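Reply to dn_fold:

You asked what the input looked like. This is it:
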Amino acid sequence: MHPIISIKDVSKTYKSGVKALQPVSLDIMKGEIFALLGPNGAGKTTLINMTCGIVNLSSGTIVADGNDIIRDYKEARKKIGLVPQELHTDAFERVIDTVTFSRGLFGFAPNPAYIEKVLRDLSLWEKRNAKIMELSGGMKRRVMIAKALSHEPKILFLDEPSAGVDVELRRDMWEMVRNLRKSGVTIILTTHYIEEAEEMADRVGVINKGQLILVEEKTTLMRKLGKKQLTLELATPIDAVPDGLNGYHVELVDEGRQLVYSFDANAADTGIHGFLKRIGELGVDYKDLHTEQSSLEDIFVSLVHSK
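and this is what came back:
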């Protein structure tokens, strides 16, 4: 399978000398949902804007659905829809007019039936005659998505799509993204909401200080780097981890009410049997126990802090 986006040795250095992006190479496959994670200033938006032809490349090449984004800019840009972080649109325009106009900007013939479908899918049809200035922040975000979809792109970039929207709208957007993927649209999103990536992404890229430090399938990443924890709810709080547990990775938390043992769930010997046996030998009384897997957020934080 050929990638729908191929990024080769792409970097960005501004005239001031600031290196916003170190050389990055990345292939994104057709029909996948790719989540790009990283702290503020990591280079996520710079990479997206270069792929969309908004920011010039300092080096390298980007090909979108077979079109070089510099040599074949118009054809490449037709394939791409972009929902930026900022809400840029004409406040005095009606919803239906601004979405219809966006379709025409890319050279597509009018298609009222398609525009209606997009607006209905985004729960905007009832607001189609409202002016943008009359909408809530969440509804304005929906309009930005509708504009990005107006020309039926094969590739959709969502740059912090859930910023400033409520939980209900965020869930609606997740459902919309899944449906778009089912229709064959490739989706690349950046997000601060780690649960967004954990919920939807097929693959995850982690970028930090302008460097792409990891690209991995989400399930593989969580299996390789995720840890499990066994938590003992103690019958009586204690002041310190018992000396006899020095050989185990154990923490005392919740003001001495819990002992937390971390282990590699993929190891041949997790050490749980030996740990619980040792707990019994030391006379540590507990009333309950449970295990939990580290989240994608835990993994992300550990990766960024290790670089």
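The chain has two domains: 3-223, 226-305.
Hope that clears it up.
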